[in-house]
Amino acid sequence: MRLIIMGPPGAGKGTQAKFIAEHFGVPAISTGDIFRANVSEGTPLGVDAKRYMDAGEYVPDEVTNQMVRNRLGEEDALPGFLLDGYPRTVAQVEELDQMLAALNESLDAVLVLTVDAEELVQRLLQRAQVEGRADDTEDVIRRRQEIYVEQTAPLIDVYRERGLLVEVDGMGEVAEVSERLFAALDRVPQS
Ligand code: AMP
User: Fold this and answer.
1) Is the terminal CB of the chain with fewer CB neighbours within 10 Å at N or C?
2) Which whole-number Å values give the CA distances from 16 to 107, 113, 191, in the listed order?
């Protein structure tokens, strides 16, 4: 299974990605998590990424694409994967298309979690208290939502036109959202 999970910051992508990846026995690959791991290890990639992340901006495409290219080439990702937080720009979609073509693979579905904007801000402010992420301050949260609308939301139409889009209501309890996701995934033909 080769899947993407999309949705605005705070939609619950990371939480749901772990359940889905476990169910299909594929790695959940979160670009945000990889960046954060690099930041805490103080790698050159982490130092570079941190200034964008702290401002709520996207890390430049070349940096992100190369990181994903390396990760998808690893052994555990060869049978399948779930991408969480990538692609986020039209240029990243094109790059991912090339990576998959080179591996002679294709996507099975693109999941989109839809969540009410006000609920998103509340969820993120709550997460800020629990996890203390540097990019969960109110200003940065707002900036991340804006960037999502400008740069990432247009990808929904791209994947809809390809017939890959699976939209799922992301409101409510974690377990309810999971149930909806699995019910929707049952209808996706697997490659
Ligand atoms: P996330 O945990 O997915 O919300 O990602 C946290 C931050 O990492 C984002 O706000 C961006 O700064 C950066 N990031 C994660 N994925 C990408 C991506 N695909 N392209 C550019 N920046 C990204």
Assistant:
1) C
2) 18, 10, 21
pTM: 0.92
Nearest CA to ligand 1 atom 3: 32
- Alpha helices in the chain, H assignment, sequence order: 13-24, 31-41, 44-55, 61-72, 90-102, 117-131, 138-147, 154-161, 174-186
Q: Which domain holds residue 57?
A: 2-186
Q: Whose CA is nearest to atom 14 of ligand 1?
A: 32
Per residue in 101-149, pLDDT tens? 998 999 999 999 999 877 888 888 888 788 877 777 888 888 999 999 9
Q: How far is CA 146 from CA 8, 58, 90, 113, in A?
A: 10, 11, 16, 17
Q: Residue of the nearest CA to atom 5 in ligand 1?
A: 32
- Contact yes or no for 93/158 (Cβ under 8 A): yes
In a domain, 191, yes or no: no
Ligand 1 atom nearest residue 60's Cα: 21
* 151 falls within a domain: yes
Does 161 fall in a domain?
yes
Active site residue 50: no
Looking up residue 145, the CATH number of its domain turns out to be: 3.40.50.300
160 domain-assigned: yes
> Distance, CA 58 to ligand 1 centroid (Å)?
6
